[in-house]
Amino acid sequence: MKIAKLAFGLICLAILASNIVTMSRWSEARGVYDDICYLRQAHLFQRFGIGGLNTNALLDYDRYFEGKMKKIAFPEWGDPIRWPCHNPMPNGKIVIQYPPGTGFLLALFPEGHQVVPLYLAASLIVCGLALLGIFMARTPPSIAGAGVFGALAMYLMINPAKASYSVAPTMAVCAIAGFLTALWLTRDRRGVLLAALIGLVLGASVNFRLPNALLVAGYCIFLGILFLRSRTSATFVQGLGFAAAVLVGIAPTLIAQAVNAGSPLATTYGSADVVAPAFDFAVLGQYLRDMQFVLIVLAIALTVCLLLIGRGSVRQVALVVAGNLAVNLVFFLSHPIFTPYYVVPIAMLSLWSVLFAWLMQPEDAYEPAALRREPTSLEAIPR
Question: Where does the chain cross the membrane (predicted)?
Fold first, then answer.
């Protein structure tokens, strides 16, 4: 088994090395509107510090964004009302529509060399957790499962993660949250600190993409049902700690919305981006032909398997994942817009959670049912 672990570990590291070589050739001037807007947010943070939360077009008096627009031959570069991914607000400001998290992370690196370090850092986190999963595996099937999934997760850091700068940090957050979820729910004693840490991590992911707020849905449903069934102070405190931590994680986006749109609950997105739910068979067909469909089918299948054969508290991980999948799929599949990465976050969070729950099962869970020895009545009495 050590040889198998070593082999899968080397495969993950080889894919990481290949990704690094590929990323090193990327250009930050590929002409994608979203890229330039994220880089403008980063530029504002580097110029004004925390004041960079204010993305008003009037702050472009150093002509940074205008210069970017000229480089891609944008015809209306001098008219902020026509700038891509900027929207006019009722307070008169013209602001970036995206939450501030991706721009903040880009701002941590020197201008002109920001994208590659961001993707490299996210890839190292994903690779580290993939190697941890392989190391934790204790049987040939679990080693193979952890190894194949680790290789897949590393591959996805190029495609579809390259489609948007916000996807790379989201992928890293999903890997971390999946590990923490399994660690939290497979413990006999569940402390509020671990629940709060998961809430903080998932809340922080909203600063990269607003739809990441849906990633907490399954946790909220699980904690709500748990409290209604037990009615204990411990479950109430867990739920309260989780919710408070989510709110703390989201705080930068709420502050940015207050600064830019005039209210923490006011969106900086335009009316064209806020669409009513509607099932569109053309959009559904695009999902069916995309890699996202494979990931969702895999997440559903493994969640069902964990529900059927998982032991003890491991099944509770599957319940959280099932609730999360249901809410997110209803939202995105009824959202009449398709992109190559919309359902990737929920798919990866689900797969990481299920993988680590499987690996954290008690050692005797891997034994065939016929070989398991149930405790006698005397052995079952707690000491």
Answer: 116-135, 142-158, 164-184, 191-206, 212-228, 240-259, 291-310, 317-335, 341-359
Confidence of residue 364 (pLDDT cuts 50, 70, 90): low
Instruction: List strand residue ranges (DSSP E) for 128-183, in order.
Output: none
Residue spans per domain, the chain? 29-107, 159-266+275-362
Over 90: is that where the pLDDT of 333 sits?
no
* Residues 11-16: contacts with CB under 8 Å, at least 24 apart: 11/147, 11/150, 11/151, 12/127, 12/130, 12/131, 12/134, 12/147, 12/150, 12/151, 12/154, 13/127, 13/131, 15/151, 15/154, 15/155, 16/123, 16/124, 16/127, 16/154
Residue 86 sits at φ, ψ, to 5 deg, of -120, 145
Contacts of 228 (CB under 8 A, 6+ apart): none
Q: Rounded to 5 degrees, what angle do the CA atoms 154, 159, 165 make?
A: 95
Tell me what pLDDT residue 375 has.
Answer: 43
- For residues 204 and 247, what is the distance between their CA atoms, to the nearest angstrom? 9
Share of the chain above pLDDT 70, in %: 92
How far apart are alpha carbons 46 and 108 in whole angstroms? 8
For 207-263, write each residue's pLDDT tens digit: 999 999 999 999 999 999 999 998 888 889 999 999 999 999 999 999 999 999 999
Q: What is the DSSP letter of 173?
A: H
- Token code pair at residue 108: 């941590």
N- to C-terminal Cα distance for the chain? 36
